[in-house]
Amino acid sequence: MKPLLVATDFSRRADFAAAWAARRAADAGCPVVLYHAITVEGPGHPQFEVHRKSVTEWREQQSRQAEEVTAAQLRALAPTVDLRCDIEVVDDRVAGIVEAAKRHDANAIVVGSRGENALSRAVLGSVAASVLTAAPCSVVVVPRHARYHGVKQVVLASDLTDLDRDLAGLGRFVGEPRPALRIVYLRHADDPPPAVDPIARAAASGWIGATFADCVGDDWPDTIDEIVADVSADLVAMTVQPHGRVYRLFHRDLVHTIAFQGLVPLLGLRA
């Protein structure tokens, strides 16, 4: 099976994301790749290159020591998971993560957020926000206080323009058996009602028993929060397409606060 690639800087928030990924991998029966990108910034001056080399070597040594500690913790947490490690020196951290995901043919990239919110740039940090939009695969953003209790209930926010694509992307991540699914269509009062039957489309894609909510209004963050709490969701999914309608609703500048109770990861689906 394709692995989960955990992008880590060995911080506490990254450790929470790695723990979530390890438990998820144990359930899914897939490997985990613990990936760390080392960057050393500085002026492009010949004299600095000597300093850059020594700093890079020191950071690589420190990173490998941190990697050993984190890997030991994850193996204790999920002893059956095939855990692999990948540390490299790169010029650009986001590009490194994206290329690592391609190299390892990852099913998804897992990153930690800085606080309660899974979508705000201020909370995500510029690296995670950039990965969310540049990744070749789906990306799971794990809030600091999220704990893995299985993926039994998923909320899918969709504009229904390509629901089959959304369902296929979600299916690639969750695998079998399918969890319970709540499809949420977010629209303004002057937007047209659904042109497709979401429940029938879901059933045709193997999502038996899915439910649907047609949400008309403007306060999308609160709407999603209420639905997440109502169905006790374990995961919120949405397609991350920069020109997509749902993406624009939530990400006008990636500054909206969507807390998901501070406990529920966000799965950004890629086509």
What's the topology here?
Elements: E1 4-7, H1 12-28, E2 32-38, H2 46-77, E3 83-89, H3 93-103, E4 108-112, H4 121-124, H5 126-134, E5 138-142, E6 153-158, H6 163-174, E7 180-187, H7 198-204, E8 211-216, H8 220-231, E9 235-239, H9 245-250, E10 266-269
Parallel strand pairs: 1-2, 1-4, 2-3, 4-5, 6-7, 6-9, 7-8, 9-10
Antiparallel strand pairs: 5-10
Helix pairs in contact: 1-2, 3-5
How many individual helices? Answer: 9
- The CATH homology group name of the largest domain: HUPs
| Low-pLDDT segments | 115-124, 252-259
Helix content: 40-55%
- Strand percentage lies at 15-25%
Question: What string gives the helices and strands in order?
Answer: EHEHEHEHHEEHEHEHEHE
Mean pLDDT: 82
Q: Quick one: CATH class of the largest domain?
A: Alpha Beta
The radius of gyration is 19 Å
Category from helices, strands and their pairing: alpha/beta
CATH architecture tag of the largest domain: 3-Layer(aba) Sandwich
> Looking at the structure, what is the overall shape?
elongated
Distance between the termini: 19 Å
Describe the structure.
The protein contains nine helices and ten strands. With 271 residues, the chain is α/β, with parallel strands linked by helices. It folds into two domains: 4-142, HUPs (Rossmann fold), CATH 3.40.50; 153-269, HUPs (Rossmann fold, 3-Layer(aba) Sandwich), CATH 3.40.50.620. A ten-stranded mixed beta sheet has the order 3-2-1-4-5-10-9-6-7-8, with helices on both faces. Helix 1 (12-28) packs across helix 2 (46-77). The longest helix has 32 residues, at 46-77. The radius of gyration is 19 Å and the shape is elongated.
